[in-house]
Amino acid sequence: MTQRYAIILAAGQGSRMKSKLYKVLHPVAGKPMVEHVVGQVEEAGSDRIVTIVGFGAEKVKEHLGTRSEYALQEEQLGTGHAVLQAEALLKDKEGITLVICGDTPLLTSETLNDLFDYHQEKGAKATILTAVAEDPTGYGRVLRDDLGIVTRIVEQKDATSEEARVQEINTGTYCFDNKMLFDALTKVGTANAQGEYYLPDVIEILKSEGQIVAAYRMKNLDEALGVNDRIALAEAGRTMRKRINRKHMQNGVTLIDPSNTYIDVDVQIGSDTVIEAGVLIKGQTIIGEDCFIGANSEISDSKLGDRIRVTSSNVEQSVMANDSNIGPYSHLRPNSEIGERVHIGNFVEVKNATLAEDTKVGHLTYVGDADLGKNINVGCGTIFVNYDGKNKHRATVGDNVFVGCNANLIAPVTIESNSYIAAGSTITDDVPTGNLAIARARQENKADYYDRLPH
Ligand code: UD1
Ligand code: MG
Q1: Closest atom of ligand 1 to CA, residue 194
Q2: Is 363 a catalytic residue?
Q3: pTM score > 0.85 for this model?
Q4: Active site residue: 36, 81, 331, 363, which one?
Q5: Quick one: which atom of ligand 1 is closest to the CA of 153?
Q6: pLDDT tens-digit series, residues 421-448
Q7: Domain boundaries, the chain
Q8: Residue 249 burial class via C-beta count within 10 angstroms: exposed 0-12, middle 13-18, buried 19 and up
């Protein structure tokens, strides 16, 4: 088997992004561009992956971890110079090397494999992945001779007006004979408009040495997008979302308005779940079957079971078990665990709390830092008072407790199972099983008072 290597170029700052964040770390559908690229390269199959890092090297390494080896490009002298930094790791290896940019997040493993196959079929020493663009502005143009054979790539800034009219673009992705690549790179100069070592110059060099150079024109132009600025970033997001949404619909998820549904790339959704417009589902979220996610809900890094209803609510880093529901207008903040059949109604905030099965928190309530048992009814306007100005404290409420409306439960406090809290109580002491706790001033009725007031 031919050895397959991959070099991912990710050392540039991305000045056209005008950003403090390094270009390849800008997320598309919730994942940094360079992670999309590495994922597709892994899927295509590669014996070794080397990522060229420079600007933000540590941050890029943090994201990719052990999925890649790294070579540092201290000064960004161009894409040719970038690839040369992998010399010490790969130079003497027999095999085929895929070079791909960290800013082309839409390329798929299928296309990379097609490129690889084409390269081998043609017996080429270099094969460029190209696409025909309606508007080729900004890309390198692929020049061919009268017979249609590739001669070289010319960058936009170096192109004559005639060359600039060529619509076939270089996607920045190539297959090379590994040894020839590193040999040719030593011959690349900087005599161009940007004074950089251009990787595409390798094509002309190999050509002049009589080697076979090929170009594989890919079918799906959308994949070719190189993200150099925020406009392209938005376009990449749009294309990626379309792809993600199609996959979910094919898997049996109903999206009422796919063009207004924002699902990150790693999200999993079960069949027969219905998602309304304006919904955002982010990060590592898993949603089960037969759920309903209503308009304008936002769910991130959470796990939802089956038959769950979320209506116009936010769920963050939390878990909802089967048949539970929330909303409208409620918020699960991080570390909330909602049991089976739990009902959370409107204007409820839950944070760092567990609610066991069949418990109900219907209206206008704050549940922070608390453990609630089963089958509890929390009345409207209840507040779990968890903060004393300095420290957070936890409250515990046992099974079958009835908490009357407008109660304050001042933590740390334990309400044992099968007990009652009277409405309007401010509870500071533990409540034993079977008790009714009333903690409010007694009512006094003053007779014949009404007529004494002026009216
Ligand atoms: C490059 C190609 C162009 C192609 C386009 C496709 C060159 C000279 N031009 O242009 O033909 O049409 O991609 O999107 O190769 N990088 C480094 N070190 C450097 C410079 C760049 O690692 O010194 C990395 C960047 O982080 C980026 C990638 O290489 O991920 C491409 O660089 P970029 O500046 O975006 O090149 P383009 O102008 O897009
Ligand atoms: Mg680019």
Answers
A1: 8
A2: yes
A3: yes
A4: 363
A5: 11
A6: 999 999 999 999 999 999 999 999 999 9
A7: 4-224, 230-437
A8: middle
